[in-house]
Structure formats: C-alpha cells, structure tokens
Amino acid sequence: MMNLYLCLFLLCTLFVCCSATSSSSSFHVSRRSILREVHDNDESGADHDYAVDLNATNFDDVLKDTPATFAVVEFFAHWCPACRNYKPHYEKVARLFNGPDAVHPGMILLTRVDCALKINTKLCDKFSVGHYPMLFWGPPPKFVGGSWEPKQEKSDINVIDNPRTAELLLNWINKQMSSSFSLDDQKFQNDHLSSNVSDPGQIARAIYDVEEATSIAFDIILEHKMIKPETRASLIKFLQLLTAHHPSRRCRKGAGELLVSFDDLYPTDFWSSPKQENDKSSVRNFQICGKEAPRGYWMFCRGSKNETRGFSCGLWVLLHSLSVRIEDGESQFTFNATCDFVHNFFVCEECRQHFYKMCQSVSSPFNKARDYALWLWNSHNKVNERLMKEEASLGTGDPKFPKTIWPPKQLCSSCYLGHDQRSNKIEWNQDEVYKTLTNYYGKTLASLSKERGNAGNDGTEGAALEDLIVATNAVVVPVGAALAIAVASCAFGALACYWRSQQKSRKYFHHLHSLKNI
C-alpha cells in the first residue's frame, strides 16, 4: 500500500512538473519568437507591421534579449487618431531596423506599447507617459526594470522630441548615432559599414554571431542528416566541448540538453531501424542556442555584400573563443574535437579539405592550451593568405573587409617583432599574440553578454563540467554529461533527473553504452 501511495505521489509530482514546464516553455517560445514575428505575418500580401508590440508581460524580457544597441519605445493608445496617423511613419523607420529582412539589422529595435490596455497601465505610469504618442530612446538594458521622470536630471533614457514624421524621426536617430541612414536604403546596401578589425570593442557584438553560427551549423547537420554511425562519436565530442566552453550560456545549455538526450535520439541501432526514415520532429526542430537563434542576420560578421563574411566569420570566432577558454589538459581533446567536427560536418568541400590537411600536419600532441590557441591562430592566417590571393585575382572579396593577417598592427603593435621583406614573413612575438587572443576572443567577446545576463563561463561551471572534457580521444557518455550538468545548474539538474527517471521506468539503464563502446 505504501508503494502505491508513493507511486501516486510521484505521478502527481511529475504531472505538476510537466505542466509547469509546458507553460513555462510556451511563455518563453512566445516572447523569444516575438522579435521574428514580422517574418511570420500575414502572407496574403498585406503590409507587415515591423515594429514589435510589447506589453507588461514581455517588455523586460524582449528588451533584455535583443542584440540591438539602442531601442525606441513608442507609448500610444489605439483609440488615439493621431497615433493611428503616426503609425505608417513609425513603420517606415521600423522597416529599416527590425526583423530578419531589415536593411540595417541588429542596430536599433523599434517597439510600441498600447497604454489603452489595462495590462499596461503601470508600465506606462513608470515612464510618466503624459501624451500620445510619446517616444523614448535608450540602450535596451536601461529600459529593463527602468522608469523615467520629467524632472530627472541624468538619465540614459531620453524622450524623442518632435518625431512627427518618418523623416524627422530618422534625422533624430542619425544625430544620436552620427549615422546617415535613409528611408530609401535597401537591404545589403551597407556602404555605411566601417571595418571593425582594429576596434577591439566591436568583437563583443560577435557573441550574437557565435550563437548564429552555432545554430546554423547544427541546422545544416540535422537538415542534411549528417549524423551517421561513423560521425556519431565526433559530434558527441564537439557537443561536450560546447557544453563546457561555448561563450554563450544559451548555447552551452542547448548543447548540454542535446547531450543528455543523445542516446535516446540517436541510439547505436538508430540507422538499422525503420525510424531512421521517419526522423524525429523533435530532432529536426531542435534549436541548440534557444529560440533567439538563428536571427537571420549578422552583427560583427556582417559583410558589405550579401554573400561575404557571415557564417564562416561566425564559425572562426567560435573556434578561437573555444581555444582561449580551455585548460591545458583539454588542449588535445579540443584539437581532435574541432578537426573531426570540421572534417565530418563542414559542407564547403574545399575548405573542409584544407582545414583537415592542416590538422593532419600536426605531428605531436598539444600539452598546453596556449600551443593549441596559437596553432589555430596561425592556421587561420594561412587560410587568409591563400584566400587573399584567390579573391584578388577573381574580384570576389569584400571591399570593406578584405582578408588580412591578424592581429593588425593597429590592434597589437607589440605582436610584431619584424618583417622579412624578401620572404614576406612576419616575425611574431607569440607571447603578445596569445595575450591578445585571450583578451579579444575571451574577456572582450563575453563582455556584452555578461552585461545582459548571457555571460560566458565565470569559473563556477568549469569544475562541475570537467567530466565532459578529457585530454584524450575518448568520449564521455551522455549520462556523464547529464550528471555534470546537474551539478552545474538547477535547470540542467532537473532535466537530468527527469531523463534518468524516464530511463528507469523503461528499464533502459542496463542498455547504456560504456565509454569504450561508443
């Protein structure tokens, strides 16, 4: 009888947990997908609304999550005739900046709040809205939990004066940003872009590109069904690396969740069973960096042409970031995981072969993280040297962002010891190069996400995740990852416990594969 009560109690608990998880998940899906809602609008040909509608329930979350540098918030009332007449003007400007098809994505987020709805009364009061429409400007994080008072002397949030037409609003924005945006700008007309290679602060915006590149890479893997018996182990190794050292917490969490479920999703007999043909919708729809990515545009990695930079740039930033975040004992594992990942899953054939050839040229194992980071840096420069010549002869390079040797002197003059004119070889101060790599792809890259709560590793997760990464060719089974993640965070712990309970109920524990069997 006691066992019966215990079972009933556990069933009830599980039901409550599942309900809570479901409702929480649906909330996150709704507020995280709101930034892309303009892309999913009516397909009948009607005009899209580009400005994002906010309310008291999603105001803080959306403004916290956006990668935009600035935000405009319009407080209006739907019954106000002046507001209705102003909407087309506001939408003309929002078209330039909002959504995946924006002309200038990721710079400014234009939003609106309807103060006529009771749910927004307190929110509108916090910003002392005294007339409609009333527009505010500021960095998105400053709106989160923020407020505005008319007599406030110093504030990061400013009222936009006289924004009565689209032209006046855009002129005001141009003055604030020292920019030259025009209402006639078209997509990929990126002449306003300036090279960001010598500005160390710009790499902070690449945290969003790293999420974008990670999401696209895994979308390609799933869409092309590239997970096969011979590639399964290499993907697990790379997932372990991402779970421990990805600079984005969202991507670390997603990689960990995929690791926990990997044996269920892709058991070793998956390819010999009929379910391979059907493939699971849960796998196809999996988003490794959460609902925020892919966003459909690039920040730091945006080229002046549609076909330049983007994914390849974001992937290189990810690899460099991983190289400066690992410990000495993880250097050989990281080298193997990276080389195998590129070899098995990078779909650009020539690039894949060139990179793997460089991997095969390494004759001795890496014992220091510094050595691996410098090898990757040197390899990237070799790739750029080769592409510089090809792009110069074919005219296919990006005129705003030509391939170059990194770091440039503007970024690190102390990295250069000399230059042999006859051989055209640079003599490097590798200590200074490594210091620049760790600051640029480590601290600076993670700085923006730390401010917005999506921080990189702060040291507290490393110890708990040490079982995920080993400095050998061995692979840790997903259940080990689950236990490690459970120690690292409550959310991961709950997920791991739930997964283990499922395994028990189905009596799968005795089927788990050992480390040697993968």
TrEMBL record:
Domain ERV/ALR sulfhydryl oxidase: start-end pairs: 304-406
InterPro entries: ERV/ALR_sulphydryl_oxid_sf, ERV/ALR_sulphydryl_oxidase, Sulfhydryl_oxidase, Thioredoxin-like_sf, Thioredoxin_CS, Thioredoxin_domain
Keywords: Disulfide bond, FAD, Flavoprotein, Glycoprotein, Membrane, Oxidoreductase, Redox-active center, Secreted, Signal, Transmembrane, Transmembrane helix
Segment forming the signal sequence: 1-20
Cofactor: FAD
Record PROSITE patterns: ERV_ALR, THIOREDOXIN_1, THIOREDOXIN_2
Enzyme Commission number(s) from the entry: 1.8.3.2
One Gene Ontology term, aspect cellular component: Golgi membrane
Thioredoxin domain sequence ranges: 43-178
Localisation per UniProt entry: Secreted
GO biological process, one term: protein folding
Spans traversing the lipid bilayer: 475-499
Catalytic activity: 2 R'C(R)SH + O2 = R'C(R)S-S(R)CR' + H2O2
Protein name: Sulfhydryl oxidase
